[in-house]
Amino acid sequence: MGEEYRAKVFKSGNSLALRLPKALGLEEGAEMVVREEHGKFTFEPVDAPPRLIDLTGIAGSMPWLKPRTREEREFEERELDWEGKLLRGD
């Protein structure tokens, strides 16, 4: 079992608020999901959106990777056979 903390409920406007100890490591403005089951409350952070990976720091470390020219990025139009159906990219 983890640490145990005491927290105090207080009135904030027309709502009640729960003051949580700084030792929990929560950041101001963090969104939480609160659940109540049989008179017991649990809370956990809302799932964060996926983070973007910044590759700018490693771009120069791979000299064999070079940016494609516009001509290299253009492809000839061709017919594709997906699931036995001939498709045209019109």
TrEMBL record:
GO terms for molecular function: DNA binding. Residues 10-51 form the SpoVT-AbrB domain. The keyword Manganese does not apply. SMART domains: SpoVT_AbrB. The lineage of its organism: Bacteria, Pseudomonadati, Pseudomonadota, Alphaproteobacteria, Sphingomonadales. Keywords: DNA-binding. This is AbrB/MazE/SpoVT family DNA-binding domain-containing protein. It comes from the Bacteria. The keyword Hydrolase does not apply.
